[in-house]
Every structure is written in structure tokens, then in C-alpha cells.
């Protein structure tokens, strides 16, 4: 039938684009880890020939830049932008950005070893994120020579905190008969007991603190809040 014939020319919507490739790469890494991210595996995931990818990306290096942007682009910097425009404080803006950063990487922990050491060249969304953070710190009065060290300090803490979200709840618990770290174990027991009492006998999210089944670490949030407060306080002390 004439009405069922395919229209000549290119399709209105391209089968592939850089955004779709980046999203597929993120899905693949989240499921299988960064070691399984190859051009061939990505092509299979998208259901296309590997050669089709090269119409949109230059190769593996370009792909990792896309992947970096796909993750960093999810970090919320709106509070930092608002601070530069006269709304809110640097303290609250840094806290909002840091919480978002941690949440994004807690959702994609396998990417932390890659992103933590990946240059930002070739990742425009990542560079824009850093630009917003740096501009806000400068606007808040942090000396120019201290802006990059502050960002690095935050990231070092945030990457570790994101990993800690997935640490087993029993990571610091000694087994019966292990008595070579009595001081540390006493403090561990004090910390976990305090969390259980303040949460009504459960972890901070309503689950039993002693659970060690791969779910969210119920002990991760209190140290994160402590560390974030210390970092923000140290940053504000840099302002003349």
C-alpha cells in the first residue's frame, strides 16, 4: 500500500545522539562497572553497530568525557547560583551542593574511582559545574589562591562519604575474641548505641542499625553531617 511506504530521506529523529549515548553508557556502568564499558559493549546495549557510535563520538576518551558530564550534570548547583545573585548564604549554598554531590555519587559508586581521577578537559558540563562552585566561593570572599584547595577538600570528603553510604553496617565491628583494639571498639559501640537510642532503637532511616545486607549504611549520615559542618566552617574562616 502507498500509505505504508517509508518516506525517503533521513529520519526526522536521529537514532543516536550524544545525550542518548551518554545515558546508555551510564546505564551500562551502573549495571556492570567501568571495566565493562567498551565501544562494543555500548553498541550492543544501544542495539546498533559499533561503527554508528563514531558518527557521534571520537572514541573511548570522548566517551568517558560524556560519561563524566552525564554524572556531574546531575549535581545541583542552583543554590550556589542563587547565592551569587544575592539569595541565601555561602554556608547554606555549599551544604546544598555538597548533599547533592554526595547523593549523585552514592547512586553511582562504581564511577567514583574513574571520575575522581579524570581530567575535566572534554567535559563541558563538568567544567560548568566547577565554574559555578568557584564563582560562588570567590563571591563569598574566599581568597583566590584557596578556591581550588577548598573544592578539592570538599570532593575528597564527598567521594569518601558517597562510598560510605554503601559500606556494611558492621565494618568497624570486631568479632568475638578480637581484643587487639579495645579502645577503638569501645568508641564504636558508643557511637552505634547512641544512634540506636536517638532513632528509637533503629538506624537513622528507620531500619535496624545492625543490618549488614548490602542496603544503605545506617551509620553513614551522622559522620557526613559532622564532616560537612567542619568543612564549611573551615571554608568560612578563610574569608577575611
Give a written overview of the molecule:
With 240 residues, the protein is mainly α. It has a domain at 14-72: Arc Repressor Mutant, subunit A (Orthogonal Bundle). Helix content is 58%, strand content 0%. The protein starts with 17 loop residues before the first helix and ends with a helix. The model is unreliable at 1-6 and 199-214 (pLDDT under 50).
Write the layout of secondary structure elements.
Layout: H1 18-32, H2 39-46, H3 50-53, H4 60-72, H5 78-84, H6 90-106, H7 112-115, H8 124-139, H9 144-164, H10 182-198, H11 221-237
- The CATH topology of the domain at 14-72 turns out to be Arc Repressor Mutant, subunit A
Please give the CATH architecture of the domain at 14-72. Answer: Orthogonal Bundle
Helix content: 55-70%
Would you state the CATH class of the domain at 14-72?
Answer: Mainly Alpha
Task: Name the CATH superfamily classification of the domain at 14-72.
Answer: Homeodomain-like
Radius of gyration: 23 Å
Major sheet: none
Mean pLDDT: 85
Shape: flat
List key phrases describing it.
240 residues, mainly alpha, Arc Repressor Mutant, subunit A, 58% helix, flat, disordered N terminus
Summarize the structure.
With 240 residues, the chain is mainly α.
Amino acid at each position: 500500500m502507498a500509505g505504508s511506504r517509508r518516506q525517503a530521506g533521513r529520519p526526522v529523529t536521529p537514532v543516536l545522539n550524544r545525550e542518548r549515548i551518554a545515558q546508555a553508557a551510564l546505564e551500562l556502568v551502573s549495571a556492570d562497572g567501568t571495566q565493562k564499558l567498551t565501544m562494543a559493549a555500548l553498541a550492543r546495549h544501544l542495539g546498533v553497530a559499533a561503527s554508528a557510535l563514531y558518527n557521534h563520538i571520537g572514541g573511548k576518551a570522548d566517551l568517558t568525557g560524556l560519561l563524566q558530564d552525564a554524572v556531574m550534570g546531575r549535581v545541583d548547583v542552583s543554590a550556589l547560583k542563587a547565592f551569587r545573585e544575592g539569595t541565601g548564604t555561602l554556608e547554606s549554598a555549599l551544604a546544598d551542593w555538597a548533599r547533592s554531590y554526595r547523593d549523585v555519587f552514592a547512586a553511582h559508586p562504581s564511577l567514583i574511582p574513574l571520575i575522581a581521577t579524570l581530567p575535566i578537559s572534554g567535559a563541558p558540563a563538568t567544567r560548568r559545574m566547577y565554574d559555578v562552585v568557584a564563582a560562588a566561593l570567590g563571591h563569598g570572599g574566599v581568597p583566590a589562591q584557596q578556591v581550588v584547595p577548598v573544592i578539592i577538600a570538599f570532593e575528597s570528603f564527598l567521594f569518601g562519604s558517597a562510598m560510605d553510604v554503601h559500606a556494611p553496617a558492621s565494618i568497624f565491628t570486631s568479632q568475638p575474641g578480637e581484643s587487639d583494639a579495645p579502645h577503638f571498639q569501645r568508641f564504636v559501640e558508643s557511637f552505634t548505641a547512641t544512634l540506636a537510642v536517638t532513632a528509637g532503637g533503629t538506624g537513622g532511616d528507620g531500619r535496624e542499625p545492625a543490618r549488614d545486607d548490602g542496603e544503605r549504611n545506617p551509620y553513614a549520615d551522622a559522620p557526613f553531617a559532622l564532616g560537612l559542618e567542619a568543612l564549611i566552617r573551615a571554608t568560612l574562616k578563610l574569608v577575611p
